Amino acid sequence: MKFSDDKLKQVDELVAHYPEGKQKSALIPLLHFVQKENGGWLSTEAMDYAAELLAITPIEVYEVATFYSMFNLQPVGKTIFEVCQTGPCMLNGSDGIVAYIYEKLGIRPGETTADGLFTLKTAECLGACGYAPMMQIGPSYREKLTKEKVDALIEEGRKKLN
Amino acid sequence: MGRKLLLEKAHVEGIRHYDVYRREGGYRSVEKALKTMSPDQVTEEVKKSGLRGRGGAGFPAGMKWSFLAKPEGVPRYLVVNADESEPGTFKDRYLMEFIPHLLIEGMICASYALGSNRSYIYIRGEYWWVKEILEQAIQEARNAGMLGKNILGSGFDCDIFVHPGAGAYICGEETALLESLEGKRGNPRLKPPFPAVKGLWGCPTVVNNVETISAVVPIVNDGGDEYAKLGTGKSTGTKLISACGNINKPGVYEIEMNISVEEFIYSDEYCGGIANGKRLKACIPGGSSVPILPANLLLKTAKGDARMMTYESLSDGGFATGTMMGSGGFIVMDEDQCVVKHTYTLARFYRHESCGQCSPCREGTGWMEKILLNIENGKGKMSDIDLLWDIQRKIEGNTICPLGDAAAWPVAAAIRHFRDEFEWHVTNPSDALSRNYGLANYAKPLEVVTTA
Ligand SMILES: Cc1cc2nc3c(=O)[nH]c(=O)nc-3n(C[C@H](O)[C@H](O)[C@H](O)COP(=O)(O)O)c2cc1C
Ligand code: SF4
């Protein structure tokens, strides 16, 4: 992995948010960036590169990457459905959404479709309790889900490929 | 209608943008504070206002500010806690999404009072689009000279940066948040030292919730005494409540702290009553960590007074018959819901979010989750209920940070008030799989869904 000059400039901008010598603070923002550039997950190579960029040791990066749920340490499908399943979403039928996705795509939480298009995950409270049931797809939230909305999201995911 | 101090302008067209926000009277507090007040005078107004931390613990904000150590030549920091991950809570998101400049304005005043030249917003990584809204607003404020060097010619320099998390409830705990902001795992620190003495990068730091800092704007504008006139007793001002669960109108409401819980649930101005014409069974009024109450104790205290939406009234009766204001995450359950199942989802949440440093929390949350799942699935024993009670007691008070307590309390309260429902699951294992206990054993049959 090697960033272009343009990307390196973006890295510098992230680092500039913190005082001199505190560049390690940029690690989480940097890992978000590296993950995006690396097809949605953090390979060992990608994490080592992040360490190099911040002049810290690789272990400091692994420690962090393994702690936070938004970092994927394995390749993921092109579209990740992360369905919130905590109390308030459960009260409003999140189990039914997970079941419906299984019915449509044959994947259970933690699984990816054979064509690599969709990954299903369950998530803990995403701060959308009033708009339940909901799921996160990449950087956006899809709220007040119904079967029809799930159908549309699956269609959207399929189109993304072409 | 109660007065609105925070959300009054939230739906003015274009309010996300500096020009509109300014035209609507925004940034007046910055002018007032920086041009006419000393930093200590700002802190004094916040003290007078009686403003209490809106992140969950309710600690008086002005007092926290006055504890900030001020050693010569050492930078001080203001960090805003926008991690918002407590189940049931989605109010900070609303504020930042609709009226981002209010938070920025409050941060400038607070930074001035505290002497922070570099302030941070730590926002949960999942709120990525909100981060972008904030960053745009900050850029606009910079362009307008409200941030940067020598703001409004006052000689005060301040800049604000947004720092994303990456999915970890524990990073809402202030010392875990600081660790995370330093680029580390979110492991809470042992206290003391408190952040006011040794916080971000070892420097004196104040961590406050988004709503707390936003409330500084009306306090500076109108004075602390005016603010304190709203509300009741030590619950001054307004509070954002994020209401969810089985109600007709889920959403974020700004309430003056002088209305009753009953009014909040049933009036059309707020939750609009229980959805689908059902009856109220139970409610967790302050985010998942606070005790659940059955309908009778929710609406009236044990003494028989109407329960009000204030810090004092919600906690009236202690944990035996009361609960807490917490973060204002108001979760309502109707007559068909299962307390065991709901408690199980919360136990799973806390097990997932435990950072793992303390064995009572790391092991105890896992045990509670397993036992609750067994009971929910009709595989529990009577002795499991006592075992659950025992485990939660052994977690509470024996851990580095309050996540342990936060995991223990919901389980304790569920058993305290709904023991019959737990026992019913044990004595009617086959029923437990096909229907819920409901209010008292008459819930509609469950639609059985198969999930992994
Ligand atoms: C496990 C845990 C999670 C927390 N999450 C949050 C949070 O998401 N947002 C927040 O403002 N405070 C949260 N808090 C409270 C903070 O530790 C801290 O008390 C608060 O940010 C102080 O701000 P305030 O006084 O303005 O409320 C959490 C506390 C604990 C123990
Ligand atoms: S109580 Fe739990 S979350 Fe808090 S420090 Fe201990 S193990 Fe970590």
Write up this protein:
The complex is a heterodimer of chains A (162) and B (452). Chain A has helices at 5-15, 27-37, 44-54, 58-65, 87-91, 94-105, 147-161, and strands at residues 79-84, 118-123, 135-137, 140-142. With 162 residues, chain A is of the alpha+beta class. Chain A folds into two domains: 5-67, Arc Repressor Mutant, subunit A; 79-159, Glutaredoxin (3-Layer(aba) Sandwich), CATH 3.40.30. Chain B is α/β, with parallel strands linked by helices and 452 residues long. Chain B has helices at 18-23, 28-36, 39-49, 61-66, 91-98, 100-114, 128-143, 174-181, 210-214, 216-222, 224-229, 261-266, 295-299, 311-314, 318-321, 339-353, 359-376, 382-395, 403-427, 429-434; strands at 77-82, 118-123, 159-164, 205-209, 231-232, 235-236, 238-245, 251-256, 280-284, 293-294, 329-334. In chain B, the strands form three sheets. Chain B has a five-stranded mixed beta sheet with strand order 8-7-11-9-10. The interface between A and B is large, with 50 and 60 residues. Iron/sulfur cluster is lined by residues 170, 188, 354-358, 361-362, 399-401, 403-404 of chain B.
- Topology-level CATH name of the largest domain in chain A: Glutaredoxin
Task: Compute the average pLDDT of chain A.
Answer: 95
Measure the end-to-end span of chain A.
26 Å
Query: Strand pairing plus helix content of chain A: what structural class?
Result: alpha+beta
* Total separate domains of chain A: 2
In total, how many beta strands of chain A?
A: 4
**Ligand names:** flavin mononucleotide, iron/sulfur cluster
Biggest sheet descriptor of chain A = 4 strands, mixed
Q: SS-based structural class of chain B?
A: alpha/beta
CATH architecture of the largest domain in chain A: 3-Layer(aba) Sandwich
- Report the span from N to C terminus of chain B: 46 Å
Helix content of chain B: 40-55%
What is the number of helices of chain B? Answer: 20
List the strand order in the largest sheet of chain B.
8-7-11-9-10
CATH superfamily of the largest domain in chain A: Glutaredoxin
